[in-house]
Each structure stands twice: as structure tokens, then as C-alpha cells.
Specification:
The chain has 901 residues and is an alpha/beta fold. The protein binds a DNA duplex (8 and 8 nucleotides) through residues 556, 558-562, 579-582, 584-587, 607-608, 610-612, 614-616, 619, 636, 639-642, 644, 646-658, 662, 686, 741-744, 817-818, 821-822, 825, 828, 853-856.
DNA sequence: TGTGGTTT
DNA sequence: AAACCACA
């Protein structure tokens, strides 16, 4: 026997037929996998196992020919032969029948041919298919582990593949398993019988005896012809007595490949042309998010988008007419920088047919540049179309276009699709760049910028505005051309994956709100900052001098490398922790060292001031817009994996608040004369979300009765009454509540609280003892997440987590923390986004939303109407969604952001 | 690129 | 946990 195990033919081999014993597979998965159900409660475990096999087969084996055999149900010729055959079997349980039907639907959606034949079992059909395939010279892989089918194995040309265990049975493996070659399996099974099918066989003859007999005689017929040569008397007698049953069993187990069945092998050629929409719909309904990613229409033919340059008002007018005729308009604004508030327009690219773009250069400047459309002509000709809400607009990052155009005095309405936002909803951590989406989903290539503007030796890289317009058009016009084509692919995907509402009712309207916020900006009082900056510079100088005196030489306190040498080599302080490159000098380490030496404390003070000065005090004045005098942060809604909004230039979401110095920076964010700064915070939104999602009775009650949640947690885990909760107990409880939200493990909690791991473990344990509902919710979430390889929020936003099945423990543990955190953080983000959309229109005339920080919205409000605005903002935010617990908003106002808190 | 630090 | 940013 060969020592090398039989292997499957190579993936994609053109002469291989894959056959699936579907009924057998579903039946096996039904018993092998523990029960699961879909979000709607439908049983799914057998379906899940079957889909896992199917998708693995289709994705990895890339079958050239593929077919599925199923039992027809009802009477078979075997039942006619022997009334006992499979007669003892109870009717299949209803949850198996449901899943069998589902599996059939899924196979149909894969567009895999199914053969069913009255009177025959799936095994018989497989035998026929194998026989026909052999005639044609095809190799065959049967996806099954049914021992009856092993008689069909033919060396390495016909093999059985147990996809669940990934084991392949060729002749060698069959011999190993049964002790006989495949051609004797039939007679072996006839002798041994099969209790699960009620095939009688010969009593007292087992696998070993049967194999020995067949080794000696070759066939069942030969055994009976030479029955007297059977040595063991007991075996001989058993054979004689049960000759009828043995022959009957042989008929029952024989798979006859010569049956006349209508089966055309040519129809089994598999092109991979699955009904992807139907598959996605089924997988979504069943909660099989894990398989969604693999469902992809066959890669379309690669092609370039067409492009045309528009240089005159007339040509532009003709295009606008075309777009109106086509009923939609895709656009991409090409600007001189990523910041739409300061960028100048280089050109506008448009499309109204997928794959066909035009480019309107506006600000190209190079020697010999042709006359370009003027901004005024653009406004007059394209402006009305952009402003027309009845003309649907499509783009990739439409907010950028909107802000850049608004800045030039255009109005903008009627956005119906954004490929960036759509792609983000489908996979927030995927690559959402338009060229990537376009090539993958539509085959349209967006050329890289370098392709139209090759780098020239010794010359600086050019901007788009320095590229010859017809070259630029090949690049620029491809964007809207691709966006339109991509939108046609993504819209049905969003629909079948139940993300369409999230786009239409949340993200798209939110993009408009964020655009308004970017245009509005926020006012910073530069005077307040310069004074602060001078003061900080002086303090830093003093600290640096002190540090020099301590160590006796020059040193740069901002350099972790220098600091490392001084602290651990010169001063011989004990290294606490290592980083990848050396010994850590982070705040925790310095705090620990501060007791032993004066230098670490000095460094900490320096770091605090230098950080605030560099990041805010010095940076903010540079970001003041020269024309508006305000700071126009860019808001991103398609960056954070959890669904949160993020902000850049500056990041308004990490402006200091805890230290006095930090608060003085917030004091520089002010409302203009005649207005006040109004700030509204959701109180404990994440824990409220957790209460709602988990329905934990203690948590829900605490919020319904308006208790201090950290005190309540302290009462629970320390088992004391409210009056006995000390400051320290409350502080620890607060950290634990945080830990729960972030999926913090023991070690992270221990570090935070500065306690031993074992103690942290006890806290966590006590927490889950008292908040049983939370514990159960976490377990449920994790089980769901493992199955679907994804987690989702209250509004159905999702995050894919393939790493939950990673073989790397670190990655898996990381994914598990994310699985705990994301439903909570993401749902809080959903609610805030909802509130923002709800507050899209000013609550009172003259009010405008200027910033958001995860659980906070801030507005500029005319001074006279603050009270009215406060009432309206609170009402809107608190009623944004009816949770099981009340939503509470803390609201305040004042001259600056600091005072509004 | 790595380290460190700010927010929620 | 997950953003963004400064600095060496």
C-alpha cells in the first residue's frame, strides 16, 4: 500500500466532476452540529454545516463539473425488495425537513444542477453519474463519507471526499478502512449488514471475518459456490442459514450505475454563475454573515472607462441635458487638496452612464493650457442640475464634493447614493477606495494618477492641475464613471444584506449634516491661545532647566530614546517594562519611578504641557481659515470600524478636559458675539445601551429609577448598601463598568486598578454574578458572533470578524474583545447619528450644529433663544429611539465650550 | 515607523 | 477599544 494519502485533483482541474450527496450531507450535519437558529428562530445548524461544505467546495475546489444528488422520498426499489429496508426509521423530525428544503433552495441559488429520481436514492444517482463520467474520461470526486458509496471508488480516478474532516478516500484508504479493495466493498457490506438501514447481512459476521472471506474467495457468489471450503464451522453455518438474507442484502447495497436515468453530463459544467442576490438574501435571512463575503459575482471583464474633455459652456450644457435625460448624475470634484474648505477646484468630473465619464477642467495651469469653462458658466449651466433635488446624484464621498461646491457658492441636493458609505456599511474595515471597488465589482479600471502623470526625473510630482487636460481626463473622469457602475452593483447588495435603510435613512442624510458642520466650522479665540502659549513656553523652559540641573547635562525631554539612557543607564533606575525597541518610559512607568527620583515627575510635567502646547495651543491658530476666521474640522463617517464619527484637522474629539490646563484650551472654543455655545451630552449612553441590549433586570432598574450607575455597581459587587459605598469603591466600580463596555480582560482591568490579576478576576466574577443578564448577553453575542463571524448593532450596522476563527490565539482574543465592544459602542454611535439626522434642520432660527464627540452634540445658538433651543435639543435627543431604559441628556450653555459643560 | 498621549 | 496627532 502506498504511504502517500490519496489527494484531491488540483483545484480548477478541467476534467473533474464533483458530486454531492446532499441528503446524506444534511443528515450528517444535522446530527454532528449542535443546534443553532437564525435571527428569526428558524433552525439552521444542518444548513450551516452544508453551506460550509458547499461554499468550501465551490470557492476552493473550483469544480469544472458539479452536480448534487438528492433522495426523492417515497418508495424506492429497495423497499420493494425488502419491506424491512429503512422501515424502522421514524419520520424525519420537522427541523430536519425544514433544513433539507433550505439546503435545496441554497443549491438552487448556487445554480448547481440537482438530480432527483422517483424510486431511486441519491446513492444510485451518484453511481449512474460516476459510470457516465468514467465513460467520458472524467475524474470524479464524491463529496460524502457514506460507506455505501465507497464501492464506487476507483483507485485515484474516483474518490470520496469527506469535506467535514477533509479526508480523501481513494482505493488505498478504502482498503485501509475495510480491509478490502473498493470492488469488494459491496459484498463486504452485504455480509456485514447495516443496522441503520435495516440491511440484514449475515449475523455474527463482522468487518474482519467478511474481509477475510472476501480475501480468500473474492466474491459473495464464490463464497457460496465453495461454501465447504469455509474453515470456521460457526461462520460456515451462519452463511448457510442466512444465504437468502445475504443475497438480498447484496441487492440492497449494490449501487447500479447502469440504470436508465436522464442525466446529461454536459449540463453539469459549472461556470460559478450563482444567483448572488438570492444567495445573499438567503444567507442574510439565515444569519450566515460569515459566508456573505465569499459570495461574489464572477469577476467581470476588465475595461477602461471612457473619457471626454469638456471645454465649452455649450458642450457642458449638452452633457447636462444628457444627464437629465438619463435621470441621474454622478460627480467627482477634483480639488487641489484633501481639505475641501481651503482647496481650489481643479476640475469637475461627471457621468450619467456607467463607465462613461466627462471631465470639465476648471483650474488647470500649465504652459499652453486651453481655455477652460469658467466658474461662472459652471454655476449657470451645471448649478441648477446640482441644486435640483429631483435629479438623483451619485458619488464616492459625496460630502467632500458637497463642501467644496458649497464653498464655491453652489447649492447641492438630491444625493441618492454614495459608494463610499455603501461600501463602508458592507464592510467597515474593508478597502473602500473607489478604484478598488470598481475593479472588483464592475471590472472598470480607474487608472492610478501616476499613469497619467508619470514622475519626471528631478522634477517635483505634479498636481492634477499641471497635467495636460486630455491626460487628466483619463484619470479624473473615471471616478464618476466608476461610481455610477459601482452604485448599480452595491444597491442590490445593500438591499439583500439588509443595509439599505441604514444608508438611505441614516448615513446619507448624515453626510449632509456633516457637510453643513464642516462649512459652519467652529470659532476659536486666537487671543486666548497666544497668551496661553507664551505662559506654557515659559513653564517648559523652567522645567527643562530643572531637568538639566538634575542630570547635569543637556537633554531633550521629548526624546524617549535620550530619556531611556538617562533614566536607566545613568540614574540606574529600574526598567519596568519593555517596548519593541527598548525600555518603556510611558506615564505609568514614570509614575512608578517618581517615588525614587525627582526626574520622572519633572518629565511627566513636561510631557503634559508640551503635548497640549504642540497639539492644540500651537496647532489650532494655524488651522484658522483665512476667510471665515473659523476652524473647519473634517468629519468622517466612514472611518471608524464601530460606526463612530471621527474628526481631523484638528481632531475635536480629543480636546483635553480633565486637567485645568486642558480646560483652558476648551475655553478658547467660543461662540461669536450675540451667540452662546450650547452643549448636550448623553448621560451614560453606552451603559444604557448595554441595559437595553441585555435587558439585565438590575441595570434596567437602576436606569429606570435614575440611580448613580457607578454607585449601584459598587453596591452590587461589594454587596453593601448605598450609604456604605466609599469614594474608592465607586471609583473601582466605574473602572469595571468601563471594562465591561470595552471588553477589558482581567489583566487590563488589573493594570487600570493597580491590583493583582486574581483580584481583578474576582471583581469581574462578582460583576457577572450580579449582572446575570449582561453575562448572558455577552455569551449570546459571542456565540452569534462565532457562527456568523460578525457582530451587529441595534440598527443592523455590522462589523465582520473573520479573526474569531483565526488559529492565532492573540488575534482570536482580540477579535473576541471587539465582538463584546462593538455592539455597544456601535449602537451608541447609531443613536447619536440618528439624533444628528433628526436635528439636521436648525432647532431655532440661527442655531447651528458645530461639533460632536461620540455622546455629545454642540451648537451655536443666538443668545436670546438658548432656553428654547435647550428644550428642543433635549427633547429630540432623548426621544431618538425608544430603548428599554430612558435616554438622559445633560445640557449646558455658556460663552465657551468649557463653560457649556 | 515606533512611542506616547488625549478623548469617549 | 478606537480614533487622531506630535515628535524623534
Amino acid at each position: 500500500m502506498s504511504t502517500r494519502p490519496t489527494a484531491l485533483p488540483p483545484a480548477g482541474a478541467p476534467d473533474v466532476l464533483y458530486l454531492i450527496d446532499l441528503s446524506g450531507y444534511v443528515f450528517r450535519a444535522y446530527h454532528a452540529i449542535s443546534p443553532l437558529s437564525s435571527p428569526s428562530g428558524e433552525p439552521t445548524h444542518a444548513t450551516y454545516g452544508t453551506v460550509a461544505m458547499l461554499s468550501k467546495l465551490v470557492e476552493e475546489r473550483k469544480p469544472a463539473y458539479l452536480g448534487v444528488a438528492m433522495d426523492a422520498g417515497g418508495k424506492t426499489f429497495r423497499g420493494e425488495l425488502d419491506a424491512r429496508y429503512k422501515a424502522h426509521r421514524p419520520p424525519p423530525p420537522p427541523d430536519l425537513t425544514v433544513q433539507m428544503a433550505r439546503c435545496k433552495e441554497i443549491v438552487e441559488a448556487y445554480r448547481i444542477p440537482i438530480f432527483i429520481e422517483q424510486g431511486l436514492e441519491a446513492d444510485d444517482l451518484l453511481a449512474v453519474a460516476v459510470a457516465r463520467a468514467k465513460e467520458k474520461g472524467l475524474r470524479v470526486v464524491i463529496a460524502s463519507s457514506d460507506k455505501d458509496l465507497m464501492q464506487l471508488v476507483d483507485d485515484e480516478r474516483v474518490v470520496l471526499w469527506d469535506a467535514m474532516r477533509d479526508k480523501v478516500y481513494g482505493a488505498a484508504e478504502v482498503k485501509e478502512k475495510f480491509g478490502v479493495p473498493p470492488e469488494q466493498v459491496r459484498d463486504l457490506l452485504a455480509l456485514v449488514g447495516d443496522s441503520s438501514d435495516n440491511v440484514p447481512g449475515v449475523p455474527s459476521i463482522g468487518l474482519k471475518t467478511a474481509a477475510e472471506l472476501l480475501g480468500q474467495f473474492g466474491t459473495l457468489e464464490a463464497i457460496y459456490a465453495r461454501i465447504d471450503e469455509v474453515k470456521k464451522p460457526r461462520t460456515r453455518e451462519a452463511l448457510k442459514t442466512n444465504q437468502a438474507d445475504a443475497l438480498l442484502s447484496q441487492k440492497l447495497v449494490t449501487l447500479d450505475g447502469s440504470a436508465s436515468v436522464d442525466l446529461d453530463l454536459e449540463k453539469l459544467q459549472y461556470g460559478g454563475g450563482a444567483d448572488v442576490d438570492r444567495l445573499r438574501e438567503l444567507f442574510t435571512a439565515l444569519g450566515f454573515t460569515r459566508f456573505l463575503k465569499a459570495v461574489r459575482a464572477p469577476t467581470p471583464e476588465a475595461r477602461e472607462a471612457t473619457s471626454r474633455v469638456i471645454l465649452s459652456r455649450e458642450e457642458l450644457a449638452a452633457f447636462v441635458a444628457e444627464a437629465r435625460e438619463a435621470g441621474r448624475l454622478a460627480l467627482e470634484v477634483h480639488a487641489s487638496s484633501r481639505d475641501p474648505m481651503t482647496a481650489s477646484l481643479v476640475g469637475v468630473a461627471l457621468a450619467c452612464q456607467p463607465g462613461q465619464g466627462v471631465y470639465v477642467p476648471l483650474g488647470h495651469r500649465y504652459l499652453g493650457v486651453p481655455a477652460q469653462v469658467s466658474l461662472n458658466d459652471l454655476k449657470e449651466v451645471l448649478g441648477p442640475a446640482l441644486a435640483d433635488p429631483a435629479l438623483p446624484k451619485v458619488g464616492h464621498d459625496v460630502k467632500f464634493c458637497e463642501v467644496a461646491l458649497q464653498r464655491q457658492g453652489f447649492s447641492f441636493a438630491g444625493v441618492t447614493f454614495d459608494t463610499l458609505l455603501a461600501s463602508y456599511l458592507l464592510d467597515p474595515e474593508g478597502n473602500n477606495a473607489l478604484p478598488v471597488l470598481s475593479e472588483r465589482d464592475t471590472g472598470i479600471k480607474v487608472p492610478p494618477f501616476e499613469a497619467v502623470a508619470p514622475k519626471r526625473k528631478g522634477q517635483p510630482t505634479r498636481g492634477l492641475d499641471e497635467v495636460e487636460v486630455s491626460d487628466a481626463a483619463k484619470y479624473a473622469a473615471a471616478f464618476p464613471a466608476a461610481a455610477l457602475a459601482v452604485s448599480d452593483k452595491l444597491r442590490p447588495r445593500l438591499r439583500s444584506e439588509r443595509l439599505e435603510k441604514l444608508l438611505d435613512d441614516l448615513e446619507l442624510p448624515l453626510a449632509g449634516v456633516l457637510a453643513q458642520m464642516e462649512v459652519a466650522g467652529v470659532l476659536v479665540d486666537p487671543g486666548a491661545l497666544t497668551g496661553l502659549g507664551e505662559q506654557m513656553a515659559k513653564e517648559l523652559a523652567v522645567i527643562e532647566t530643572r531637568a538639566r540641573e538634575i542630570v547635569g547635562h543637556e537633554l531633550n525631554l521629548a526624546s524617549p530614546k535620550q530619556l531611556e539612557t538617562v533614566l536607566f543607564d545613568e540614574l540606574k533606575l529600574k526598567s519596568q517594562r519593555k517596548t519593541k525597541t527598548g525600555r518603556s518610559t510611558d506615564a505609568d512607568v514614570l509614575e512608578a519611578l517618581a517615588e525614587e527620583h525627582p526626574l520622572p515627575g519633572v518629565v511627566l510635567e513636561h510631557r503634559l504641557i508640551a503635548k497640549l502646547k504642540g497639539t492644540y495651543v500651537d496647532a489650532l491658530p494655524k488651522l484658522v481659515h483665512p476667510e471665515t476666521g473659523r476652524i473647519h474640522t473634517r468629519w468622517s463617517q466612514a472611518v471608524a470600524a464601530t460606526g463612530r464619527i471621527s474628526s481631523q484637522d484638528p481632531n475635536l474629539q480629543n480636546i483635553p478636559i480633565r486637567t485645568a490646563l486642558g480646560r483652558s484650551i476648551r475655553r478658547a472654543f467660543v461662540a461669536p458675539p450675540g451667540s452662546v455655545f450650547l452643549s448636550a451630552d448623553y448621560s451614560q449612553i453606552e451603559l444604557r445601551v448595554l441595559a437595553h441590549l441585555s435587558r439585565d433586570p438590575v441595570l434596567v432598574e437602576a436606569f429606570r429609577t435614575g440611580q448613580d450607575i457607578h454607585t449601584r455597581t459598587a453596591m452590587e459587587i461589594f454587596d453593601v448598601d448605598a450609604a456604605s459605598v466609599t469614594e474608592e469603591m465607586r471609583r473601582q466600580s466605574k473602572t469595571i463598568n468601563f471594562g465591561v463596555i470595552y471588553g477589558m480582560g482581567e489583566s487590563a482591568l488589573a493594570k487600570r486598578l493597580g491590583i493583582p490579576r486574581a483580584e481583578a478576576a474576582r471583581f469581574i466574577d462578582a460583576y457577572f454574578q450580579r449582572y446575570r443578564g449582561v453575562h448572558e448577553f455577552m455569551e449570546r453575542t459571542m456565540a452569534e458572533a462565532r457562527r456568523s463571524e460578525s457582530v451587529h448593532t441595534l440598527l443592523g450596522r455590522r462589523r465582520l470578524l473573520p479573526d474569531l476563527r483565526s488559529s492565532d490565539r492573540m488575534r482570536r482574543a482580540y477579535a473576541e474583545r471587539i465582538a463584546q465592544n462593538t455592539p455597544i459602542q456601535g449602537t451608541a454611535a447609531d443613536l447619536l447619528k440618528l439624533a444628528m439626522v433628526k436635528l439636521a434642520r436648525p432647532v431655532v432660527p440661527g442655531a447651528r450644529m458645530v461639533l460632536t464627540v461620540h455622546d455629545e452634540l454642540a451648537f451655536e445658538v443666538p443668545s436670546g433663544v438658548v432656553e428654547e433651543a435647550s428644550v428642543k435639543v433635549r427633547e429630540a435627543m432623548e426621544s431618538v429611539y425608544a430603548l428599554d431604559v430612558p435616554l438622559v441628556v445633560d445640557i449646558g450653555h455658556g460663552a465657551s465650550w468649557a463653560e457649556a459643560h
